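COMPLEX REQUEST
Ligand: S-adenosylmethionine
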Amino acid sequence: MLGILYVVSTPIGNLEDITYRAVRILKEVDWIACEDTRTTGHLLHHYGIQTRMVSYHDHNEAERSKELFARLIAGEKGALVSDAGTPLISDPGFRIVRGALEAGIRVEPLPGPSAILAALAVSGLPTDQFHFGGFLPPKQGARTRVLEALRNEDATLVFYETPHRIVEALADIAATMGPREVVVARELTKLHEEVLRGTADQIRATLDARDSVRGEFVVLIAKATGSEEGGLSVEDAITRLEAAGVPRMDAIKTVAKERGLNKRDVYKLVNTK
Ligand code: SAM
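STATUS: Structure written out below.
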């Protein structure tokens, strides 16, 4: 008989945020595939779980998946976890889940924490529809393009962000989205948990004023209400200036300057659509 692959969510900070069932299954399986044996080892130690760990990450995924499939096909039961939260959500695991399904192996979820849902639930922003965009691109040009493409989305926008890019990401959000409601959830379930609310500019100023910006962040952006000042898209702002007789290159320069964007990025944005 084929084995089972359990996809198990683990805490995003507070070690108590794990289900009874997750602890039981992690004790019962033959192995636990994890990103980092030290991080998962800490969780296993806390709950007295002695199951063998197998490292599974972006760099050994292809090779390690083959070995794990062979074990599942031979009837073993395995659990897939990531360092924090739900595996596959901006975390490794897609290849093993997909491969297991293609091999006819049963894949069962053990739901639990994920930073997206934890942040949404306390954001105070509408949750009826949301768009999760993963991590925003590290480079300003690509990041601006992603934000620009989503500015009229009829949903709360949710992104993951790193401490060294959060301030510049907020500046780009202010420039592309206008002064709409933004929520930044930092270090959820941990000692320094905080949820900052305001416009992107206000939150950027708060973080920028600190000696250092640390921790893990989820950024949430309210959907457009249509009443934001300066709520025109970069492209529409350029078109409006052109319609008023401003040459295209001058319009691009003006809009880039007004919004604190790089001229070349704006040029690329409006010329690659
Ligand atoms: N799989 C995870 C999940 O389900 O939430 C996400 C993994 S992703 C590699 C890590 C990112 O998630 C962090 O950079 C941060 O943006 C977000 N994150 C994880 N834990 C968080 C926390 N406790 N508070 C705020 N954001 C968190």
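REMARKS: The mean pLDDT is 93. The pocket of S-adenosylmethionine is lined by residues 12-13, 82, 84-86, 89-91, 114-116, 160-162, 185-190, 216-218 (CB under 6 Å).
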